[in-house]
Amino acid sequence: MTDTSQDRHYTENVQNKLKQVESLLNKLALLEKIIHRQDLPREDRHSLVDTLAHRQHLAALRLKLDSLHPADIAYILEALPIERRLQVWDLVKTERDGKILVEVSEPVRESLITSMNREELDAAAGRLDTDEIADLAPDLPHDVMHDVFKSLSIEEREQLHAAISYSGDSVGALMDFNMIHIRDDATLELVSRYLRRFDELPDHTDQLFVVDRDDCFKGVLPLNRIVVNEPEVAVGKLIITDTLQLHPDEKAEQAALAFERYGLVSAPVVDEDGKLVGRVTVDVVLDFIRTGTENDLLNQAGLREKEDIFAPVWESAKNRWTWLALNLCTVFFASRVIGSFEGTIVKFVALATLLPIVAGIARNSANQTTAIILRSLSMGQITRDNARRLLLKELAIGVLNGLVWGGVSGLFAYFLYHSVSLGIVMTSAMLLNLMVGATASVAIPLIMQKLGRNPAIGSSVLITAITDSGGFFIFLGLATIFLT
Amino acid sequence: MTDTSQDRHYTENVQNKLKQVESLLNKLALLEKIIHRQDLPREDRHSLVDTLAHRQHLAALRLKLDSLHPADIAYILEALPIERRLQVWDLVKTERDGKILVEVSEPVRESLITSMNREELDAAAGRLDTDEIADLAPDLPHDVMHDVFKSLSIEEREQLHAAISYSGDSVGALMDFNMIHIRDDATLELVSRYLRRFDELPDHTDQLFVVDRDDCFKGVLPLNRIVVNEPEVAVGKLIITDTLQLHPDEKAEQAALAFERYGLVSAPVVDEDGKLVGRVTVDVVLDFIRTGTENDLLNQAGLREKEDIFAPVWESAKNRWTWLALNLCTVFFASRVIGSFEGTIVKFVALATLLPIVAGIARNSANQTTAIILRSLSMGQITRDNARRLLLKELAIGVLNGLVWGGVSGLFAYFLYHSVSLGIVMTSAMLLNLMVGATASVAIPLIMQKLGRNPAIGSSVLITAITDSGGFFIFLGLATIFLT
């Protein structure tokens, strides 16, 4: 639950807030430099004035931070280099630490948590809902988790236990427990009286969840319907029973697609016995979608995980090495493919100059196909019925591209080296390589999906390896047969 | 507004629904083939039975479609090849056409609209809200828009006019007009009585918008607060005034980030005079985010726009040609760079085999950096203060990678060709090229952003061109100096 009571300056652009914090930090840094100058006598008048100014700016910064929404502070922390980030983190009121930790991205969260001691972490986690504690759990030290666990009620312990046990890509991981349930035998009058006992309803309460005596899920009652109907109407007459029910073990991606398709704000999570165990809300789904597509972008570019842009060089380098190492193997292989045709290249050095054309166009074209296939896969739109059709279509585009761009490249080669046969070899090699690329870029993501792996990870490295080495082999092979 | 009254089988997985529709279509196709077989006499008994079965399956398919949510039908239409898509489209009840057209992706929408005549389109558009008509407007023929416009009330005409006039990436384009406004001098009692006049509130009504006599925006009153407070409380005591206000000309991306950060369900749109003109809801924001990140993925892969996976080969090819043509220019250039060192290659044919290593590793590493920079840019986290730091950091990673992977590659070259100087040239070339790549992949997106262009479009083509041609030039240049 976010606190809505305080003045949060929502109307101001968050980039402006960042700039204001940065400018205060700049002034502080400047003043600190002046104060700590060794060449001036310590009791110099300036120093006193500066110390005062320093204190003033510090107070201004603290005030500014207090006025910001936890999500805005999270945003600012992510955009600041490490030392400044920790400086700001120290100034944030302790009681808000928890909410902010939930909001920041994982690598930045790690950098903040390592700067905190056990008491601070206990205090931060202690103020959170159980589903939020579950989100932080992987990053919290064991002793802190132990303290937090001890401080919870039995019901909360069960919730936390459940929330932690679901795998990260399941509905269970998106779930919270802040749902309001009512009985199906009540009247609106009774429901209204029950609701007035709350000071405020949990965020994203667009509907109440209706259960029977055994906590079995019966349907939902939108707040909308409560306010447009007369108090004497029975809940049973207004509930919607044909509503989306999620299951804690279902894939989170499926739930996200359902939220998008049906424009949901919240949805009940029901276990296999039909019991209501929690709810999922649209804000969490939004986060999940943003993070998911971001990770896809990063994975496709060959990064292992999300990076703190100000992480130490060494850590960032490690994040990138898995794929670079794999890439090194594939280019070594491509290099040996060329090496095995050294004899041909010695006779026709022109071949060496044309190699990047054969590989480059096929690589680019395969990337386009991969992007389309990955999108359709993530939307769940590729079925057994249409996969063959897609492959044939991409092959056809490959042939078309091969004739057009292969033709242009053949002419390019002919005009440069005045050899008709070189031109023909060039065009044929590009045609064949584009077909190889099209096949690979449809087949590889589909096969990876079939094997239960994320097709966004590693597809493009593999496909590039195939169009590179394949292209070199086809081009130099044809040249060896027809030119020598 | 989506219709919530009907039974929509929410609880069933949409992929299953697609499979059911596909299997019905398969049966229909099979029956049609049997019925139209020319070698059997027309009055054959079988034919009658088959015709009956055909009619039954058709009825079953129509029934199935009637039971589906418009968004599910949109999903199914997108996943079907063109002829089957149009077959299903014909079976959908006319009164639901409009809602479905709003839901499908643009290229698929075009394929559906071209299959409809003026009357059908008039009927489809006539049932939509003005903001939905505005979404369809670019794809509707002029005469249909004319008919639709004539059928609207004066107020609706003004809304439609306003909605169409905002640019596609502004808040105005996300806005709808289904907000409920109340006066700040009312009591909850009065508000409740007003709300009971509605049969149902518009979707995503989590708050009412409070305005004064002149329609100036004063604040919001969450439904939450209505249900937890006693009827006699005055609206003025409960309204939240420090709430996010969007402006119609603001960038939609900014609004989306605000929805994510603050977990909003709806937000008021207010013009420069402080008048309430519309609202934005989270479902539209979700669509916007999904489409935006998808377009980024497609653009980075070198596609001009989103593609219907079953578009005719010719249309898909055109969508891909802009970037392939540009790519052809860059590889021709790279080819000429190699060509200008033909003399060196003739002497050391080993150089030709090592070229893909120098270019490939730098390309891959630059892609990683670009992905991180693009992510930070889209989150608005790169400021003047931290851009220099980022460049230095990426350069440092480039040097580290150059020493490690360049070193390995140097050894590879040495062991293959037994030349120490070749190994040193190899390592140096990779070190330099990785630094060139790091600089380009930080600088190019930042410069494009500065020039007001979308940095996701074209960055990677440019950066690849630089690491390819640059790598060839550095490697062959160093080789010419030190090996010959």
UniProtKB/TrEMBL annotation, chains A, B:
The keyword Cell membrane applies. GO terms for cellular component: plasma membrane. It comes from the Bacteria. GO terms for molecular function: magnesium ion transmembrane transporter activity; metal ion binding. It is a multi-pass membrane protein. Residues 239-297 form the CBS domain. Keywords: CBS domain, Cell membrane, Magnesium, Membrane, Metal-binding, Transmembrane, Transmembrane helix, Transport. CDD domains: CBS_pair_Mg_transporter. It is found in: Cell membrane; Membrane. InterPro entries: CBS_dom, CBS_dom_sf, Mg_transptr_MgtE_intracell_dom, MgtE_N_sf, MgtE_transporter, SLC41_membr_dom, SLC41_membr_dom_sf. The chain crosses the membrane at residues 395-417, 423-448, 460-483. Homodimer. Belongs to the SLC41A transporter family. Acts as a magnesium transporter. This is Magnesium transporter MgtE. It comes from Candidatus Gallionella acididurans. The lineage of its organism: Bacteria, Pseudomonadati, Pseudomonadota, Betaproteobacteria, Nitrosomonadales.
